[in-house]
Structures are given as C-alpha cells and as structure tokens.
C-alpha cells in the first residue's frame, strides 16, 4: 500500500531522523467533520495519535470525543445517518478510502466499549472469537496460546484460569471489562480505542484497568475517551480537549493539566463546567 | 313484557335518576361548603344504583325462569312410557319447547286452545311459516300450552320485581345526595369492579373452553374406551343413524396425530429457515427504504385469511403439483392433488410472516452493544449475526418456533381444503393424510345428532388439541419472557 | 504498508499485512446476504403468485352475461284459469320461465312448433328468471298483458361460454354447451341483446344452487352483524381489562394468571373457540345455530386477547410523567386514566382493534362448527336469524363442483381481500400518522 500523504511521510521521516520512536504518528485526523443527519457533531478536528502512547480525549458530555473515537475504526459506519468528512489516516493510509477494507481496519484498530459487553458465551469463547473469525490460529494449541496470552496481558488469567468455560457474563463488572480488553488484544490490533472504559466500574476495578492501560502502552497505541480528568492525567501521555464538537486544545498531558493555553480547558480542568 | 322491554325500561329509570340526581346535586351547591363530588357523579351514582341491581336480577331471573321452565316441562311429560316413541327425554323436551314457540306465532285464541292433535295443528302452524319435526306427539300440545302460560306469568312477575328494584335503587341513590357525600368515590369503586370483571373474562374463557370440552369428552369416554381413542391406529367412526345406539366405530387418534405432526413438520421446514432469514435480513441488512416496502408486504401476507391459502392449495398448487409429477413420471402422477406436501408447503408459506415477525422482535432485542463488540473486533456482518446475535437470541428463537409450531398444529382451513380426509398412516409426503382439526370439522358439520360418539369425539379431539397447544404455548411464552428479562 | 514507519519500533504486534481470509469471508458475507434476499423473495413471489392466480380466476365474476328480452306478460301464461283476483297463490305459482322462453323463441325466430329445437333452449336462460319475473309481477300486477324489456340472466354455462372459458374446440358431447346454443349466443350477441353487465347479483343474492343466481348478500350482512357485535363487545371489554391490568392491578398471582391466560388465548387454535361456541352458546345457552349472534360472540372471545395486548402496549407507551402530572393536579386515578391516558393511547388501541377485526373477518374454522355453513337464501333481519359469513361462503363455494362456482369463489376472495386490505392499510396509516415518540 503506497498511498502516503506527504505529511505522514514527512513526520515519519522526521521521527526517524529525531530518533524518538514514540513521536511516530500512528493515526492522524485532518479536518474531520461528522454529521448525524442534518446535525453536525464534529467540526474540522485535526488530531494526531502517536505510537505507543496513550492519548486521552476529554471534554464535557456531548462534546464529540466519543464521536471522534468511533471515526478511528469506522464504527460510525454502523449508524445509518452518520456521515464523515475530512481525512483520517492510519500509518499514512486514508482509512475512509474506498479501497480500505473496514473489516481489516477494525482488526488493526480494536475497540473497547463504555459498558462491558462480553458475548453470552464462555470466557474462552469470548477471547477466541476474534482470532477465530480472522483465522489467526492454525490449530487448537495455537488458539489456546493466544487466549492465554491475551488473558495474561489483560491481567485476568489468574482470576479465571479455572473457569475458562463458564459464561463471560458471570464475571464482575471490572473483570468483564478486562475480558473485553483481552478480547480486543487477542486480535493483535495496532491501536486500541477505549470509550470511557471505566465509567461503569467501581474505583478498585477502575484502578486495575488503569494499571492495565499503562502496561499495554508498551505494545499498543491507545486512544481513550474519558470523562474523568484525573484519569486522563493518570494514564495518558497526551490529552486532547473537545468542546461542542471542536478540538479546543491538544498537547502533552502534563502541560495540559498544569498550564493550558485555552481558557475553556482551564475552566474544565478546574471544574467550572463539565 | 319481554326482557328487552324491561331492559329498556330499567335504562329509562336510570336515565331519569341520573338527571334528577344531577339537578339535585346542583341545587344543593349553594356556594357555601365545597361539594365533595361534582354534580354529574351524583347523577351517575343514582343511575348505577337504579340499573345495576335491577339488571343483575334481570339476568338471574331470565336464566332462572328458563331452568325452571325446562324442569317444569320435563316433569309434565310422561315418563318413558310405552306410548312415547321418543326414548330420549331431552329430545322430547326440546320438541315440546319448539312446539311452544310455534304456538306463540298463532293468534291468541288458537294459542290457548289449540286443536288436540298434532295432525290438525301442523297445517295451522305451517301457514305461519313454522315447520316442526314430525316426531312431535299429541300429548305435548297441552304441555306446550301450559309452558307458555307459565312463561307468561314468570315474565310478568319478573318484570314487576325488576322494575321495583330499579325504582327503589333510584330512590335510594337520590336520597343519598348531600354536599359532602362521596359520590365520585362510589362511582369509581364500582367502575374499578367493572374493570376487574372485564379482565377476568380471559380466565372465564379458558375455564369455559376446558369445561365445555371436558364434559363432552367424559361423555364420549362413556361409550368409547380410552385405549380405543388414544392408542387406536384406525380411524373409522362410521356415522350411525340418528337415534340408534350403535357406536361400532373405531376412534383411533394415532393416524390423525401423525398427519397433524407430519404436515406441521413440512410446514416448519419451509417456514423456519425462510422466516428466520427474512427476519435477519430485515433487521440487519435492509435499508430503510427496502424495509418500508417489504415490511408492509410481509404484514399483508400475514393478514391473508387462511381460507385463501387453503383455496390456493386446492385449486392451484395441488393440481399443479399433481400435473407436474405426472409430467415428471411420464403419465402417472405420484403426487396426489391433496397431499401432505401441498398442505405443508402452503401452511409453511402462511407461517413465514409469523416466524419472521416473532424472530424480528427477538433479534432486535439483542442489545446493540453485542453487535458493536463484534463489529469492533473486525467481524463481518454475517459473522456477527451467525456467531453472536443468533446464539444470543437462540432461546427466544426457540420460543418463537414453538409458538409457530403450535399455530401449525391448530391450523384448520388449509388442511381442511388441502390435506384430505383419509385417515392414513403413511410416511409418503405425496399422499393425503388428515389431521385432528380436519376431523373436528368433519364430525361437527352437517346434520348431526348431538349425543352420539361420532360427534362427541370432536370434543375429545378438541381437548387433545387444546392440551397439546397449551403446553407448547405456555412453554414458549415462558422461554420468551425469560429471554426478554435477560436483556431488560 | 511502508517500511519507514516500521523502523525502530520494537515490540508492536506484527505490522506486516496479515492474511485474515478476507476473500473467503466476503464470499461468505455475500452468500449470507443472498440467502436473506432469497428468503424474502420467496415470500413475496408466493404472495404475488397467489394474488395473480386468484385475481385471474376471479375478476370475471364481476361481470355477468344477461340477455335483454322483450317479455310479454301474457295473462294466458301467468293466469290460465283467470282466478288471480281471488287466489293470491296464482301469481306466486305461475309459470314465469315460460314467459322468458316465449320471448326468446320470438327473438331467435324459432318455430314454436319445433319441439326439438325448443327443448334445446332449456338451460340457455337462468332459472333465476322465475323469481325475477315473479317479483316484477307481484310488485305491479298491472303489467300483465304488457310487453317490456327485461334483463334476464343467462345460465352459468352460457355465461362461461360467452366469457370464453369453455373450450369450444372440444367435441360437442363433451362440453356443457351445445353448438346450437353457441350459435344462438352469437346471434344474440351480434344484435346486442346478449352482453356482459356489472354483476350486482354477486353482492346481493343469497345462497342458490345455481351459480348465476348465487351471491354474497347474506354473507356480507352476516359478516357485518358479526363485526358489529365484535366491535361492540370486544372493544369496551378489552379496553376495560387492559386498563385494569395496566393501571390498577398490583402484580400478584392473580394478575400473573390473567396475563398468562391472555397470552395463551391469543395462541389457542381458532377451532377450539368454535367448540366452545357450540357447546356453551348453542347447547348450553340455547342460542340458535347459524346465527350471527353466536358467530359474533365466538369471534369476540377470539379477538379479545389481540385487543387487550395492543391496548396494554398503547397504555404502557404513555410516559409516567403524564400520570404524575394528572395526579399532581388532584385528579383521581380513574380521572387520570379516562381523561389523560386513554385519549393519548387511543390511536394505538384503534390500530389494534382494526387488526383484530380484520383477523376476525377472515376467520372461518370456528364458524363452521357453529353451523354457519348453511344454505341461507334470505337476508337475516336480525343477528338471531341464520346467516353465513364471507369466508364461510367462500368455503362453501369451494366445495361446489361447477366451474362457475370457482369463478364466484375467486370473486368473493377478491372482495374479502379488498375489505381486509382496506382495514390493514387503515391500521398502518393510523399507526404512522399518530405514532408518537415520547
């Protein structure tokens, strides 16, 4: 696939020259606009997602952060009325190019949802689902290995190893969410999108998932939507602030939380609105 | 005075009570104390007091006097004496009743003093357009005259009583009107009882179904043994001549049950895959435009009465399949015009919209999160459907299939027209078989004598059918309910 | 994928384009979609075939061949003994077909003395001529002795032949119309006195053993009576029951039982209701067989669950905020229900009722058991008199052998379907028009 935009090429080249690998742009959105029917939900969003970093999208509810997230693996396609304009690239390829296959894209850009949504199947089957449909394992031992390593990485293996064949819906909320993360990891995606993954969890389970996100950063590029600024501060390296469909400010998390440029960001992180 | 007149009179008293009550309540409201209830509630309360007890009495009196009359007539008829040609007292009583009804058409003079013999009376009645059974006996004439007289007396007494109760109610209601009287609460309490009564009709219907069939069935098993019915493999009820007691028939349920289940099976083989796939397509793939056209069309298919399907099978599909098989086999057709296949196919098509609308509901009840979870992992739509949605919806779909199967088993008109009447045990779907419902219709249409096993067997078949479908329905409804609760 | 971005990155999952079997999977996807399209097409194609088959057989039933003849109401034929002034039976029993036959003989120019030819005229005109001419004479005896043009129905076979439904190339002995009759038919058609007219009789006649004089008049009236009874009973009872269950009843064993009962009754085979009607309404309560009243009661019991289920759904769809608002203003619960909830739920209730009525209108099986398969020639003046119903009339015609009955039957199906479609479309339109999203 040789379609690369010039910017992506430049940035990739410059990354290489700087020798700072974690500055590689994994995904880039340019002038992204989203319409739900007549209503415009996102306005000209330009945002880069850097490789092996956690990018947090924050902002008050209804600000468009989830909408943007769902553009990154084209989950908006499943909503009839939704229309996306602008350009989003993954490794320099336009993911809305007609030649791009949405199934393959989603295998590369996995997603974890707000509410844990394990399938009504066993724990094992939940994790094995992705590898199975994509044909990632040639035989049963390989599949077993993928399932085990995914559960390991999601930090769930020790808790469930004795009941792999019990229904995934029987786990606690936090465990269910980690199961969903394991399910996403099992496909070996390059990017994992997380849509408020902790909003349905209690504080202890949240802490566990946050730890996990930090560990996963080693191997995956992560974009997380969160409602909680503390969470963004804890887990992310970069933060993007959305408001009313506009990207207000974007930058390193530390800077965003200590010295934001925009007044709205300041107001939001100090709790004036949200 | 007929019941109808009394009914109207009671309503009239009620109406008067309503207006008087409202007037009175309005007059009492002098703007001092705030009345508890608005004036029309006082009116309604008076209306209800004037009508409800009276109408209740009307019903009780109506039923009661009929019962009394019946026993009165029976007691006057000679006990199965040698001269009475009619062995059956019920038949004699019913002949007497029709005679009494016939006499009412004559002018008053003749009706009270009719000719003594039936042969003289018959032409008189015939001129009034009354045709009576020739079995009517002379001795019934005085009994009939007496019955009419008694009935007249009963209705006069009843009418007077009812009107007194009604007027009394009205007076009571009017006398209760006071500024702080809680007329609204009274009216509403009565309304609540009315609502409650309406909702018990469902239970009464079920009880009615069970009792009505149960009694006749018990009656049936007095002359036919359990084993003959439930385990018999031959169905040959042999209509006996009316009145004679011979019940030599064979009443084997097995061939009917086999035919019922076989045809239902063929129908389900057609309906389930097609209906399920349609539902999947409609809920997961179809664009809103396609849905807007196809959905009403499928509803239309569901709205076509089964008789139309049956006739289509009888005049079009059956002959077509017969001729087709004749063409294929070179002369002799191996598919009969009425066959398990024809009936099953047409019934299957009839059930397609049933399966599809039931499973459509079930499939759309699967939460969106399941779809998103699967699509988010890079599954294609069909993979999502096959591996996530359908397994998740499976219990509900099983329930839907059971409900459909119960429809298939109880379906009547298609099989009456397309399946045939021959009660055979065969595995060949190209031959005719018959079903429980067909036999119920066969045994109960046309002229029949009610108390012979040949007609009573229809009730035994009916209760079997009811029990069969009841178990399936309740089980299916239970599954579907549990399924829905899971996702609520 | 480019190599550039791969450089210097360690530990990420395989970045090279993985083979995830896309080709195979998309083929499966297309196949699956195709199955869906096929499934829907099967249903729709069948619907189309069935409608085409019925309409093509039935549309001709709406025209009927009649012969316009100048009938001379000859007193010698009607009243040969001249006693009509004293004996009213004379006019009833007169030989009216003879009048029509004479007119036909004159019209065709046959020699009245040629008995052999005259005999062939039998079966050319419908026997319905008797009743038709009698009605004319009884209504106005002064027409005796005059001559007037009367449209007389042709016999069913002539009607079929004229519509081209009888294959005239078949040997004469093996078809139902003779060559002579065909020749007459053509002769009359040529001068315009034999022609097809709109078939009013299909809508007005009662039962008859002759296809050309049988119609659905009694069935339509019977069905109307029954629909009226169902509407009058099932709607109020159903709404009352739903209100109780949805708004007043606390969840208890008893309401659970009612609920299960209603859902089950909705799925009980219709024929079972017929058995109920036969043994309760006819045998126990002594209501007359074949009466629309009994049919109406049976259909009411059948329709109730449908109406209750639809009404409860409509009531449940009214948001609780409306209830709180009404109660908060001091309305009693009963006032809240009848003044606020019920009007808001009315469109839903109406839709459910229409659908229930449409189902009741097409229902046949239970009516067979309560004796509505009856030969009823006269209009029932009350619901207590014998009547038939539309679908039952169709069923009875389906059991007749003559092809002219098949034509009438198909015509009757068309009429029934038009009724049902009108009802269903009304329901769909109502639902769309009043559908409210809270």
From TrEMBL, chain A:
One of its GO terms (cellular component) is membrane. Keywords: ATP-binding, Nucleotide-binding, Phosphate transport, Transport. Residues 27-269 form the ABC transporter domain. The keyword ATP-binding applies. The keyword Lipoprotein does not apply. One of its GO terms (molecular function) is ATP hydrolysis activity. InterPro entries: AAA+_ATPase, ABC_transporter-like_ATP-bd, ABC_transporter-like_CS, P-loop_NTPase, PstB-like. It holds the Pfam family ABC_tran. It comes from the Bacteria. GO terms for biological process: phosphate ion transmembrane transport. Belongs to the ABC transporter superfamily. This is Phosphate ABC transporter ATP-binding protein (PhoT family). It comes from Pseudaminobacter salicylatoxidans.
UniProtKB/TrEMBL annotation, chain B:
Residues 257-476 form the ABC transmembrane type-1 domain. InterPro entries: MetI-like, MetI-like_sf, Phosphate_PstC, PstC_N. The keyword Nucleotide-binding does not apply. The chain crosses the membrane at residues 43-69, 153-178, 190-211, 255-276, 297-321, 341-367, 388-409, 456-480. It is a multi-pass membrane protein. It is found in: Cell inner membrane; Cell membrane. One of its GO terms (molecular function) is phosphate transmembrane transporter activity. This is Phosphate transport system permease protein.
UniProtKB/TrEMBL annotation, chain C:
It comes from the Bacteria. GO terms for cellular component: plasma membrane. Pfam families: BPD_transp_1 (PF00528), DUF3333 (PF11812). GO terms for molecular function: phosphate transmembrane transporter activity. It is a multi-pass membrane protein. It is found in: Cell inner membrane; Cell membrane. The keyword Cytoplasm does not apply. InterPro entries: DUF3333, MetI-like, MetI-like_sf, Phosphate_PstA. The chain crosses the membrane at residues 32-55, 218-245, 265-287, 293-315, 336-358, 409-430. One of its GO terms (biological process) is phosphate ion transmembrane transport. Keywords: Cell membrane, Membrane, Transmembrane, Transmembrane helix, Transport. Residues 220-427 form the ABC transmembrane type-1 domain. Belongs to the binding-protein-dependent transport system permease family. CysTW subfamily. This is Phosphate transport system permease protein PstA. It comes from Pseudaminobacter salicylatoxidans. The lineage of its organism: Bacteria, Pseudomonadati, Pseudomonadota, Alphaproteobacteria, Hyphomicrobiales.
């Amino acid at each position: 696939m040789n379609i690369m935009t010039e910017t992506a090429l430049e940035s990739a080249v410059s990354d290489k020259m700087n020798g700072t690998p974690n500055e590689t742009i994994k995904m880039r959105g340019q002038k992204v606009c989203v319409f739900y029917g007549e209503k415009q939900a996102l306005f000209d969003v330009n945002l880069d997602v850097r490789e092996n970093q956690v990018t947090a999208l924050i902002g008050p509810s209804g600000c468009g952060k989830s909408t943007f997230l769902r553009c990154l693996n084209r989950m908006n396609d499943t909503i009839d009325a939704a229309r996306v304009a602008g350009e989003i690239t993954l490794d320099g390829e336009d993911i809305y190019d007609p030649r791009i296959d949405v199934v393959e894209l989603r295998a590369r850009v996995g997603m974890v949802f707000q509410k844990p949504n394990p399938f009504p199947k066993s724990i094992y089957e939940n994790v094995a689902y992705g590898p199975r449909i994509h044909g990632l394992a040639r035989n049963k031992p390989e599949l077993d290995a993928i399932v085990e390593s995914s559960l390991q990485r999601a930090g769930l293996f020790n808790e469930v190893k004795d009941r792999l064949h019990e229904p995934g819906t029987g786990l606690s909320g936090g465990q269910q969410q980690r199961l969903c993360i394991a399910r996403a990891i099992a496909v070996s995606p390059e990017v994992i999108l997380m849509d408020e993954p902790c909003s349905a969890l209690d504080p202890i389970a949240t802490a566990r998932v946050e730890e996990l996100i930090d560990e996963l950063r080693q191997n995956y590029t992560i974009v997380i939507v969160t409602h909680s600024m503390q969470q963004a501060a804890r887990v992310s390296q970069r933060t993007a602030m959305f408001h009313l469909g506009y990207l207000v400010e974007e930058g390193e998390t530390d800077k965003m939380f200590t010295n934001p440029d925009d007044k709205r960001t300041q107001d939001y992180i100090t709790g004036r609105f949200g | 005075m007929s019941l109808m007149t009394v009914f109207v009179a009671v309503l009239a008293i009620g109406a008067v009570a309503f207006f008087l009550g409202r007037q009175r309540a309005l007059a009492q409201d002098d703007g001092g104390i705030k009345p508890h209830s608005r004036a029309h509630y006082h009116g309604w309360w008076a209306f209800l007091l004037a009508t409800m007890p009276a109408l209740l009495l009307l019903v009780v009196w109506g039923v009661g006097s009929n019962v009394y009359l019946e026993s009165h007539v029976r007691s006057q008829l000679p006990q199965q004496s040698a001269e009475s040609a009619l062995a059956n007292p019920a038949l004699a009583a019913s002949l007497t009743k029709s005679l009494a009804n016939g006499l009412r058409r004559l002018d008053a003079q003749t009706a009270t003093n009719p000719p003594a013999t039936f042969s003289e009376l018959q032409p008189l009645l015939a001129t009034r357009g009354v045709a009576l059974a020739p079995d009517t006996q002379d001795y019934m004439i005085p009994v009939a005259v007496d019955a009419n007289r008694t009935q007249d007396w009963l209705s006069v007494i009843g009418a007077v009583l009812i009107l007194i109760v009604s007027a009394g109610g009205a007076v009571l209601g009017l006398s209760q009107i006071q500024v702080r009287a809680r007329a609204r609460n009274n009216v509403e309490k009565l309304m609540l009882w009315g609502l409650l009564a309406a909702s018990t009709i469902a239970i009464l219907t079920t009880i009615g179904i069970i009792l009505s069939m149960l009694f006749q069935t018990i009656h049936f098993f007095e002359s036919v043994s359990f084993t003959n019915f439930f385990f018999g493999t031959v169905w040959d009820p042999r209509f006996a001549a009316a009145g004679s007691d011979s019940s030599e028939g064979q009443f084997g349920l097995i061939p009917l049950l086999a035919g019922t289940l076989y045809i239902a099976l063929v129908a389900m083989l057609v309906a389930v895959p097609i209906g399920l796939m349609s539902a999947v397509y409609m809920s997961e793939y179809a664009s809103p435009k396609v849905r807007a056209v196809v959905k009403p069309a499928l509803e239309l298919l569901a709205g076509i009465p089964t008789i139309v399907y049956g006739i289509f099978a009888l005049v079009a599909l059956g002959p077509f399949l017969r001729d087709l098989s004749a063409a294929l086999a070179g002369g002799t057709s191996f598919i009969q015009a009425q066959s398990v296949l024809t009936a099953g196919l047409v019934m299957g098509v009839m059930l397609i919209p049933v399966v599809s609308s039931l499973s459509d509901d079930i499939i759309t009840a699967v939460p969106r999160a399941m779809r998103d979870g699967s699509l988010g992992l890079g599954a294609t739509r069909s993979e999502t459907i096959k591996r996530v949605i359908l397994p998740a919806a499976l219990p509900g779909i099983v329930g839907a299939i059971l409900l459909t199967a119960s429809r298939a088993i109880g379906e009547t008109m298609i099989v009456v027209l397309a399946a045939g009447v021959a009660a055979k045990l065969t595995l060949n779907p190209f031959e005719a078989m018959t079903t429980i419902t067909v036999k119920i219709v066969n045994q109960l249409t046309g002229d029949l004598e009610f108390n012979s096993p040949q007609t009573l067997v229809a009730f035994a078949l009916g209760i079997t059918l009811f029990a069969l479908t009841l178990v399936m329905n309740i089980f299916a409804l239970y599954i579907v309910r549990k399924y829905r609760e899971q996702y609520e | 994928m480019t190599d550039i971005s791969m450089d210097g990155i360690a530990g990420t999952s395989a970045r090279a384009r993985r083979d995830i079997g896309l080709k195979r999977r998309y083929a499966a996807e297309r196949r699956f979609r195709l199955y869906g399209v096929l499934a829907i097409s099967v249903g729709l194609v069948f619907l189309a075939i069935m409608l085409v088959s019925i309409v093509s057989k039935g549309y001709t039933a709406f025209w009927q061949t009649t012969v316009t003849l100048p009938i001379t109401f000859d007193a010698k034929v009607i009243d040969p003994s001249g006693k009509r002034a004293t004996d009213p039976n004379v006019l009833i029993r007169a030989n009216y077909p003879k009048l029509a036959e004479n007119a036909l003989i004159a019209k065709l120019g046959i020699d009245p003395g040629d008995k052999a030819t005259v005999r062939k005229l039998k079966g050319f005109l419908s026997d319905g001529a008797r009743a038709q001419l009698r009605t004319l004479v009884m209504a106005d005896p002064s027409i005796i002795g005059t001559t007037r043009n009367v449209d007389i129905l042709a016999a069913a076979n002539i009607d079929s032949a004229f519509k081209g439904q009888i294959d005239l190339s078949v040997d004469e002995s093996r078809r139902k119309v003779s060559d002579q009759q065909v020749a007459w038919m053509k002769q009359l058609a040529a001068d315009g006195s034999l022609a097809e007219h709109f078939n009013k009789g299909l809508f007005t006649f009662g039962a008859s053993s002759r296809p050309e004089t049988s119609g659905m008049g009694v069935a339509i009236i019977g069905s109307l009576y029954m629909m009226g009874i169902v509407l009058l009973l099932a709607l109020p009872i159903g709404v009352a029951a739903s209100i109780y269950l949805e708004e007043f009843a606390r969840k208890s064993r008893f309401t659970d039982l009612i609920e299960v009962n209603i859902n089950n009754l909705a799925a009980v085979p219709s024929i079972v209701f017929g058995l109920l009607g036969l043994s309760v309404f006819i045998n126990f309560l002594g209501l007359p067989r074949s009466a629309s009243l009994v049919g109406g009661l049976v259909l009411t019991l059948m329709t109730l669950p449908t109406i209750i289920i639809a009404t409860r759904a409509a009531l449940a769809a009214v948001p609780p905020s409306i209830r709180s608002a009404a109660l908060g203003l001091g309305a009693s619960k009963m006032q809240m229900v009848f003044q606020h909830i019920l009007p808001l739920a009315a469109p839903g209730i109406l839709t459910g009722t229409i659908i229930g009525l449409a189902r009741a209108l097409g229902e046949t099986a239970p009516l067979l058991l309560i004796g509505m398969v009856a030969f009823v020639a006269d209009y029932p003046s009350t619901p207590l008199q014998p009547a038939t119903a539309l679908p039952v009339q169709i069923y009875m015609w389906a059991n007749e052998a003559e092809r002219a009955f098949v034509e009438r039957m198909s015509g009757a199906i068309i009429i029934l379907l038009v009724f049902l479609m009108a009802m269903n479309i009304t329901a769909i339109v109502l639902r769309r028009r009043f559908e409210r999203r809270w």
